[in-house]
Sequence to fold (301 residues):
Amino acid sequence: MRNMKGAITGAAMLVLAVIVPVKAGATASAGEIAHMHWDEANISTLRSLDRDSIQKFVNSPEAYGITPDEGPLSDILPTDVIQFAWADFAGNGKYALVVVEGDAGAVISIFQQSAVGKMDEQRIELEGYGHEGQLKDAIRELNGDGKKELLVNSGFGAGPSMAETPLTQWPMVYRLENGKLVEASREFPSFYDKQVLPPLEAKIAALEKTLDSEAGAKAAGEAVIKEYSPSQPDIDSHTSPEQEKAVRDSEQLALQQSLRIHILHVLGRKPTAKEEKEALEWLDSPDYWVRKYAEPALEEM
Fold:
């Protein structure tokens, strides 16, 4: 059942968006979808299905391998399909249905057909977070083996409020293993080296350059924070706009550097000696948020 099978939890966000055209989409009943072969021969038809048809399927007994005469899904609350797509995760011409559903796309369900009319479902819980983006950026072939992987953006960094949490994201890679999608980011170092780390490092370098020109304003802003320590004030009411910006840039730099260290840790690598030194220096900062971002980095070093 949906609330029992293959849950994967984590403060993550999926980069997905509907690319199936709803206006021109074909309609089908839940039973028709369940008993259609989810394979290369039918992929054009499957991709033409509209959102309403997919939503009826997801909320039907057929989606969970239950025939209507076996009873309704009494323990399942109806859900809204936010986004959906078809993906060949096994590279064998058989397709899985990926559905982003729930409040703000907080759940990803992956439906696979073990046989015609028989379904297996896996859920990835996003703990209340969702994120819109392009499907082509979320379901991709990363290593040339003909199998698709699923990129799920994991939230990183806690902000002052839930509305500001997470502060940034980084993509985790899920691949198919024994019929289930499993997190396997470490197995795709080339993806991170070519597509994830370079823009992150460019952002870090730009922040470092900016902060070089803001050294005086940063020092003055931190002096104000230190004056009110240990209770850090809302600095925009106690500092000039220049001082506030410098302090925020400093916090953002610590966040991005901490994220880079985290990704290196996921890949089984160590940060540079310079990065280790900087992370240790964060602990002496009067800024609560800089110290906060240092904690996961130091734990992983």
Notes: The chain has two domains: 7-185, 191-300. The chain is about 35% helix and 20% strand. The helical segments are 30-34, 43-48, 51-58, 189-213, 215-227, 241-266, 273-282, 288-300. The chain has a mean pLDDT of 83.
